């Protein structure tokens, strides 16, 4: 019975680690992916040695499968809490909502405004790049100022130049300067 519980717990630990390693690789965070990958391998080897030592039972197989499924769920929760990376929002408006645009810029979001022609009238599109951790605040502001906005979001893989990249480089340089002083 102890083996079944251990297998279950190992899977609950292993799968979230695997999830995070995969996400770090996709986000091009190789150093973090390497560290988490080494931890993943350690947990995996321990789990496999436990499963393969002795006779396997149906209980062990079920524990492995259930632990895997619950581990995926927990990995998803952890990833959502960490909110690694950036998201681009395309916000389509029926009117040129200056208050919304100014509020977003005041809150530090880089906003580019496009004017276009919809089926029935002119439309305005806001393009906003934000950290994933800032998504809830961004969505709240948009909802407050423009509840009928049509919003599409996606994760960009690469970006170069622009407002946000300059701000990130500035923060990175400040961080490096602080590290050098220590």
Write structural notes for this entry.
The chain has 182 residues and is an alpha+beta fold. It has six helices and four strands, in the order H-H-H-E-H-E-E-H-E-H. Helix 1 packs antiparallel against helix 2, helix 1 packs parallel to helix 3 (58-82) and helix 4 packs antiparallel against helix 5. The longest helix has 25 residues, at 2-26. The termini are far apart. Residues 109-161 form the DUF2179 domain.
Quick structural gist:
With 182 residues, the protein is an alpha+beta fold. The protein has helices spanning 2-26, 30-52, 58-82, 98-106, 135-145, 162-181; strands spanning 86-93, 110-117, 122-131, 150-154. The chain folds into two domains: 2-82; 86-159, Alpha-Beta Plaits (2-Layer Sandwich), CATH 3.30.70.120.
Descriptive key words:
single chain; 182 residues; alpha+beta; 2 domains; 6 helices; transmembrane; cell membrane; UPF0316 protein Q75_02190; membrane; UPF0316
Termini separation (Å)? 52 Å
Strand order of the largest sheet: 2-3-1-4
What class would the helix/strand composition place it in?
Answer: alpha+beta
Count the domains: 2
Mean pLDDT: 84
What is the N-to-C order of secondary-structure elements (H for helix, E for strand)? HHHEHEEHEH
Kindly state the percentage of residues in helix: 55-70%
Largest sheet: 4 strands, antiparallel
Strand content: 15-25%
Residue windows where pLDDT falls under 50 for at least 5 positions: none
